[in-house]
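Figure 3 (text version): structure tokens given as input.
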């Protein structure tokens, strides 16, 4: 069994699709299929069921997936330890972030880091808070950045910055009464992010503090990205609670207006698996991110 075979197995298992895995690995489909077949033959175990054009993990394959990921994580940690000996002249950094953090807060900090450490490669993915927490808990990333609270014992979690949520609408689309009372908040048409979004979780917690049961909220659209929500609100679909980072340009341009609902400030958090090797690159990136934040305040 080789590390390359394990990497191929994990890629196929996560996608349950040979062609997609081969494309992600920059391999041919035949080479990908042969590597999986060799692993099965070597250990006399069936890892996948072939179901027409698609494949699915067998029970043995599901059990083996966690072990394979753990081995790859340890191998990566060993590579990081060796890279640290080069003093950040080489190395890799894997980062995942939820959408608000990933699209608006993190890019300038990644750019600063890349300028300081050009020899360190950066792999960056974006999901929602739940997805990023799962990657960190699985030991698949060095650092995760989210805007929602996470309760996961395997993770070291700490605040890294603050953010402001505001309620926005298209001009003339929502005439709010003084104080934005409970009844109005329940009846107003809302455009919401998907469940698992940190922005949605924080806003719904604030609504509960106002006495609004979130199950009674009038959600007219549920969309998977900040950009889709912003565009829907600008077109007059309803209201939304969004980060000021996301909507500041639209407010300045006059395509959105902020409504007078005072929401608590929220934290951005950095996540790291407690047992994953903390590389020199990860520590350096956190220093860069925090120094960048201090410099713009």
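Below: residues designed for each position.
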């Amino acid at each position: 069994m080789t590390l390359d075979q394990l990497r191929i197995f994990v890629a196929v298992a996560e996608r349950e699709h040979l062609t997609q895995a081969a494309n992600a690995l920059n391999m041919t489909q035949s080479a990908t299929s042969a590597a999986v077949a060799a692993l099965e033959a070597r250990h006399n175990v069936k890892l996948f069921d072939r179901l027409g054009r698609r494949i699915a993990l067998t029970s043995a394959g599901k059990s083996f997936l966690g072990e394979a990921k753990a081995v790859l994580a340890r191998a990566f940690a060993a590579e990081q330890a060796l890279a640290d000996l080069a003093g950040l002249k080489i190395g890799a950094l894997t980062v995942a972030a939820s959408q608000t953090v990933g699209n608006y807060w993190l890019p300038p900090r990644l750019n600063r880091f890349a300028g300081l450490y050009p020899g360190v490669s950066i792999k960056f993915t974006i999901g929602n808070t739940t997805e990023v927490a799962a990657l960190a808990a699985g030991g698949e990333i060095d650092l995760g950045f989210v805007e929602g609270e996470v309760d996961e014992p395997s993770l070291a979690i700490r605040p890294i910055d603050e953010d402001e949520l505001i309620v926005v609408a298209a001009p003339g689309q929502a005439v709010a009464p003084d104080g934005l009372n409970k009844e109005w908040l329940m009846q107003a048409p809302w455009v919401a992010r998907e469940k698992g979004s940190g922005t949605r979780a924080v806003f719904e917690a604030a609504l509960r503090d106002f006495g609004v049961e979130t199950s009674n909220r009038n959600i007219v659209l549920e969309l998977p990205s900040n950009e889709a929500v912003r565009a829907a609100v600008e077109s007059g679909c309803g209201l939304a609670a969004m980060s000021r980072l996301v909507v500041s340009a639209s407010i300045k341009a006059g395509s959105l207006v902020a409504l007078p609902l005072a929401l608590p400030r929220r934290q951005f958090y950095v996540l790291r698996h407690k047992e994953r090797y903390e590389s020199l690159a990860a520590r350096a990136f956190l220093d860069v991110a925090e120094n960048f934040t201090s410099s713009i305040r």
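The mean pLDDT is 87.
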